[in-house]
Structures are given as C-alpha cells and as structure tokens.
Amino acid sequence: MNPHHSARTAHRPGALVGLAVTTLLFCTAVRAAAPADLLSTYVSQAGQPAAASRGEPFFTQRHGKEWSCSTCHGAVPVQGGKHASTGKPIEPLAPSANGKRFTDPAKTEKWFRRNCNDVVGRECSPAEKADVLAWLLSLNP
C-alpha cells in the first residue's frame, strides 16, 4: 500500500466536511436578506419609490375578491392573525414583530404569489409589493 495515497485519503474526509460547511454557510448567507434589501429590489423593479401610504389601503381593502390581506393577517399585522378558511394561526407579518419575515426572497415570492392571487386575483406588481412592504416596515409592535 502506498503511504502517500493513504495520507491523502485520510485528509480527504476533513476537506469534504470543510467544503460542506463552507457551502452551507454561503447558501445560508445568500438566502438570508434584510427586508430593506427586498424592498430595494421591488423598488428597482417597479421603477418608482415605494409609498407606505399606498401600501396600507392595498393591505386592508378588498380588490374584487372575497378577502383582503388583513382578512388573515389582521388590520394591524404586528399581531398574529388566523387563516380565514382553515383557522390556522399566522405569525405577525410586520418585520418589527417577527424578525423572520421577508428574510428569504424565495419564500417571500411564494407567499406573495399565493396571497395576491387570493386577494387580487393575479400576481401583485413589484410596485404593489414595494408599497405593502414599505408600510409593513413602518409598523412598530
């Protein structure tokens, strides 16, 4: 048996573990975003500044469908809500009351897509997302 070969093989598992840890940390860092970063992305996509003054009525009013955002998330989304059909509890939506909100862009897009379809009957525009997020970021618990 070649002693150099076994020495290289002995170091390989440690190197693979190190690579796996580095990859995991990198992926976690990429996924974790600040809500303000997400807001900046929506503003850039919309080509106009976000307005919390447009976000609040968008959130609380109905748009031709049975529900508004506030139907499930509550009119004051710094408190928990409850799903209108299932009754399942929903954690606070405002980032000031729930630090996990709007930190995962993929998850945020998934829920915007689902909820906008329920509330508006279509996907929300980047401007609508920016306005709602700007309003949510303005709320204090």
Structure write-up:
The protein is mainly α and 141 residues long. It folds into 2 domains: 1-31; 33-138, Cytochrome c-like domain (Cytochrome Bc1 Complex, Chain D, domain 2). Helices cover 59% and strands 3% of the residues. It is built from 6 helices and 2 strands; from the N terminus they run ααααββαα. It has helices spanning 3-31, 35-46, 52-60, 69-73, 105-119, 126-138, and strands spanning 81-82, 89-90. A two-stranded antiparallel sheet has the order 1-2. The longest helix is centred in the N-terminal third of the chain and has 29 residues, at 3-31. The model is unreliable at 15-31 (pLDDT under 50).
Structural class: mainly alpha
Helix fraction bin: 55-70%
Query: The CATH topology of the largest domain, please?
Result: Cytochrome Bc1 Complex, Chain D, domain 2
Give the helix tally. Answer: 6
- Give the strand content: under 5%
Average pLDDT works out at: 85
- Give the name of the CATH architecture of the largest domain: Orthogonal Bundle
Order of strands in the sheet with most strands: 1-2
Largest sheet: 2 strands, antiparallel
How many domains in all?
A: 2
In CATH terms, the superfamily of the largest domain is: Cytochrome c-like domain
Helix-strand pattern: HHHHEEHH
The CATH class assignment of the largest domain is Mainly Alpha
Q: Tell me, what's the shape?
A: globular
Number of strands: 2
Low-confidence stretches: 15-31
Distance between the termini: 67 Å
Report the C-alpha radius of gyration, rounded. 21 Å
Oligomer: single chain
